[in-house]
Structures are given as structure tokens and as C-alpha cells.
Amino acid sequence: MDTAQPLLQKRRLVWLAGVLATAGVFLLVRLAWWQLTPRVELPFPMESQPDRMRAARGNIFDATGHLIVASTLEYEVGVSPKLLSEAQRKELAPQLAAILGRDVAQVADILAQREAEYMLLGRNLPAHVGRQIEELEAEAFSIEVSFRRVYPDGSLAASVLGFIDGDEQGQYGLERYYDRALRGVDGRWYGVRDSWGELIMMSVSGYQPVEDGADLVLTLDRNVQAAAERILLEGIQHNKATAGNVLVLDADTGAVLAMANYPTYDPGRYGEVESLEHFINTSVSALYEPGSVLKPLTLAAALEAKVIRATDTYDDRGEIIVGEQRIMNSDRRAHGLTTMTQILEKSLNVGAAHVATLLGPTRFYEMMRRFGLGEATGIDLALEVPGLMRVPGDSTWHMSDMGTNSFGQGISVTPIQVASAYVALANEGMLMRPYLVSAFRSAKGEQSVSPFPLRQAVSPEVAETVTAMLVEALEKGMQRAVVPGYRFAGKSGTAGIPDQEGYRTDDIIASFVGYGPMPDPRFVILVRFDRPREGYWGVEVAAPEFSKLATFLVDYYGIPPGAS
Amino acid sequence: MDPRTLAYFGVMLVLIWLAGWLFLHQASEVASYAHEINALMQRKERLHRELVVLRAEVALLGSLSRLQETGTEWGYQLPSASDQQRILRLEMHTVAAAPSLSSHDDRAHDAETPKPESSPNLDEGLWQTLRHKGAALADGLFAP
């Protein structure tokens, strides 16, 4: 027998064993690889498709914990009639008609389009309708879910809140300022699709959890806001004004309790506004000349610089020349020996200009800056403007500007700047940054926002002195702002509106700013009306509305008379 | 073929079969877990959407206009700004003059009310009794 045969067989067996052993080793190594290195991405890049879970936009709560802006779902439902059998068409038509509230024949017509790839069944459908269609579990349906904003209180605080446009971008107000925080992060996960089209996640790193947008908790109280808007609207109608603002700030912290603007709009129907100007929050984005409400700041500046004392007097002759410009009192009268308090009580332009000349331009404008005029307050709202205040050194500044600026003309401010300056007077001279959001809430927890002290505008003693002067001035010269049983400090303003030819005497801005109740002020209230046709002076037009709102506030917060 | 070689190949085949079985078992387990994860993710998404919708419904139910309508139905009315009937008013009254300390009935400022002489507390110790007698004697001596 030939010995080569067994040898050949042995060699073949050895080769076969080697191949099988190699295959076995390869399988064992691969198995160990999957078991011991779970973070390794599996090599299916050509088939990996991300699936997305939409993040809900953050909600907005008021200070009392009520939702004033929420998100809900909308469905867009389509069908692919091509994928339906005759039996399915007959079964689904009446079901869909009942769910959608449409005619059965109409729905049957849509389903009968046998060659159509896609037919729309409904758009902007509410969540309960979309869920019912999802439960039908027909493969031919195409369901798109999107989020929509809901405003339970309609136009309440519209100019503060803003709205979401068709591209889900925040526009105006808080929606724009906090767009990134509200937006959230969509969840995503990567994997492969099996033969049924189901996504299978194949690794831990292929999953990114959805993060809903942060909820905002506001300092705004919806009840105070509603009262402010109601009183503003009543004032607009009564005085036949074209526009107006009402602001309520916390006198200690600068937190905004209410910010009402007129005209306004419904953010749920932002496409139906008459004019794009309605979107503008005039409390922070529109300038006006404030008039006599700035006189207390002029006096505070002079007291701080010690160029006057509260007990000083001057001889009011009815006019004064400042920088070659003649300045007269609004009543065109001379008032003789006049005290500092009477400058406020009788709203004397000559007195204010006289005090400003004692200060000098450098100290005058430095103090105005310390009160925040001429710069943005930094409030957390979109599109705030800084205001216009010409100062020495500007090419257009003239000494006469100081004379007119001393009583609030020739200087442009926003309502929030004026209210914030009065917060400083109410708050022992400390200028605070106004703010609207007191906390952020997310799945990670709650993050509170603290009040922002900016700087000491005037000393506590000066603030107290000016406050006492304003209380006396209000009670003697502005009785329409009085709140029975309480003491408030306040000043009215009646400012001409400038045009190219000078100041128009028939168009004015009437306002009143005040704070209280004494001795520990809780609120600063600003009321402003543009171009009132019934009434003229701030003390006639705005002071009564101030009194109404202050009465509401002391009642709402349960502040007894004579205490706070 | 000798038995040793056969045994060798038999063991090799068993090992390869085992490896193959393990591989298929693991792969199918991964796939089944992935399907389960997929189902849980879809359920999570549905619950998430339901939460969003419910929150919006709660907001609508708590709207100011609905509260006002319900309040009106129940007979409540918003007060006008000039309505002062509900404002808390404090009335200050002159406090009556405090009675003198020698008054027989004065006990206002003494936390430990001294017992009247006529009714000594027999349960008190000797020290308390002496103290009370001393106080009564002093009141009698220094009375205006």
C-alpha cells in the first residue's frame, strides 16, 4: 500500500482543522469585542437614520403660579390613498369623517384617489383629533406633530410676552429675549431600520434625550396686570387719548409687577394686527419727552451736590434766561418767594431751571446719568432703546438744553427709565435694574434670579428728603392723585410733543409717576397718555388713573392705611 | 482515521457551533432589546405629548376670563376702584390709664400673681409664705 495516501489525508485534515479553528477564533474575538466594548459604534453608517423627538417650548408662569403662555400640540394629517385597499377605504371613510367633523362623501372622495401618493386630510388639528387618528393605526396615514402657543388670557401682557412666528422663532418681548432658553433641545437617536421600518437603537451613544425648554416664572402678577390694562383702557377711552402706558414696579427690587401698553394685540392672532407698530412695547422701545416728572430728579441732584437745601427759597419772577433761552412757567406767572417743595407742588419750570443753573451742566448731567437717563435699563425684554440725552461735549448740545432738560423737555426717555429713576427715590437712593423673570424652571431644577442693584444714585438722606417733598406736593397741589387713607409721593407731567417747527401746544403727553404708600413704599406707578383730547394737564388726565391703580394695589395686597 | 483525530475534529466542531450559537443569541437579544427600547421611546413620546396638552388645558381652565365668568355666575363682582367699603380701617382708641401698683386688685404686671393675704395658699412652702407676707407688709408701709 502506498504511504502517500494517509499522509495526504492527514494534511487535508490539518488544513481543514486550521480553517475551522481560524473561523472559530474570529467569531470568539468578535463576540468578545461586542461584550467588552459596548461604546463602539456598529459599522452601519449607510443605514443609520436619526429619529427626532420634538422638544416642547418652555411655558411662562406669572408671579402667582398661573400659566399665561403654554404650548399645545397641533396635528397635520395626510393619507396615501395608493396604499389603501378597497376594504380599508370603505372602513376608514366614515371613521375619519366622524373624527374630523367632515362629510363622509368628501372624505371618501379623498381616499378614492387611488393614484395619489399624498392627500391632505387636515391641518392645525387639535391634539384629541390627532390622537384618534393615530389610534386607527393605518400605515397609509402620515402624521406630523407640531407645537403651538396658547394664551389663556388672550391679549393680557401681549407686548411683554411677544409671540412665536410661523418658523417657531420668538418675536418681540420675552419670547424673543429668552428664545434660546425657551426653545429646548430636540431628542435624537440613531440606529438602523429593520425590515418593518422600525428604528432600532444599536448603541448607547446613539441616544440624546429630549430637553424641553425652560419654563419662565415672571415677576408680573396677572391680576395686577389685568387691573393695569383695565384702568389704562378706561383712561384712554375717557380722555380720548391715542396711546398710553401703565407701569407698576416693586419699589424695593425693581421687579415689574405690571406693564400695560395701548394699543395692544392678541399674540395668538398676531397676523391680524392693523399695524406692525402694535407689536412694539412702548414701555421700553418708544421715546418721549417726560416733562415735569423729571423735576424731582433735578432737585435730588441739587440736594446731593449740596447746592441747595430743602428749606431754601428763591424769587420766582416768572421767567429765567438759561443759555440765552428764556424759560417761563407754564402758567406764565411769577410766584415770588418760592420754596423747593413749591417747585414741585406748582410745577414751576423757572424753579427747576434755577436749580439746574446752581448745579452747573457737569454735575447736572452726571446726576441724570446716575439716575439711568440716557442709557438702557437692561431690562430683560427685546428691543429696549437707551433714550436720547445731549450732554456737554456733543456737537448739538447747548447750555439752553440744561435749562429745558431740568423740567423734562429736550430729553427723550422711555417709560421704564422714568419709573426706574423713581424706584431709586423710593428705595433709599439705590438704582435697581428692572426685571421680569424671577426664576427659570427645567428638568434640572429651579434657578432663581436675584434683584440687581446698579448703583447709589443719591444718598438715602436725599432720597428721603425728596420723598417728603413729593408727598407734600402731591397732597397740596395734585389732590386728584390722593389715595384716601394713604400717603403717596408723586409728580405729574405735561410735556409738549416736538416737531420740526418746535413744540405743539395742542398735542401733549400727560403723565403721573408716584410711589408709596408711606412710610415704606411698596410700589412705583407710572401712568402716561398720549395726545388726550379730553383734559390737558397730567394732573387732570393721568393723576386720577394713578389714584385708581394705587387704590387697587393697596386693596389687593392688603396694606392697611397708615402702614405698609 | 484514528479516534484521536476524530475526537479533535469533534471538539473543534462543537466549539465552533457554540461560538456561532452565542453570536446568534447575542445578536437576537440585542435586537429584541432594541425593539423594546423603541417601544418605550414611543410610549415616552406619547406621554410627553399628553403632558403638554394637559398642561395647556389646565392653563385654559384657569384663565382670568373663565374665572370672572364663573365668579359672575356665582354672584361675585369685581369692586370698583372707588369702593372703599372693604378697605380695612384701623380705629385708634385712647388706652385707659394703667391702675396704680397699690391697688388691691392690681395684678397686671406680675407674672407670678401674689396671693391675697386673706387666702394664703397652704400648699406653698415656708419661704413662699414668708415672701408673700413681706410683700404685703411693704405695700402697706409704702402706700400713698
Written account of the structure:
The complex is a heterodimer of chains A (564) and B (144). Chain A is α+β, with helices and mostly antiparallel strands. The radius of gyration of chain A is 35 Å and the shape is elongated. Chain B is mainly α and 144 residues long. Chain B contains three helices and no strands. Chain B has helices at residues 3-61, 64-73, 126-142. The longest helix of chain B is centred in the first third of the chain and has 59 residues, at 3-61. Chain B is elongated. Chain B starts with a helix and ends with a helix. Residues 102-121 of chain B have low confidence and may be disordered. At the A-B interface, α1, β3, β5, β10 and α8 of A face α1 of B.
Large-scale geometry of chain A: elongated
The level of helicity of chain B is 55-70%
Quaternary structure state of the chains depicted = heterodimer
DSSP helical segment count of chain B = 3
Largest interface: A-B, 61 and 44 residues
If helices are DSSP runs of H or I spanning 4 or more residues, what is the number of helices of chain A? 18
Question: In percent, how helical is the residue content of chain A?
Answer: 25-40%
Task: Please summarize the sheet with the most strands of chain A.
Answer: 7 strands, mixed
Mean pLDDT rating of chain B: 73
Order of helices and strands of chain B: HHH
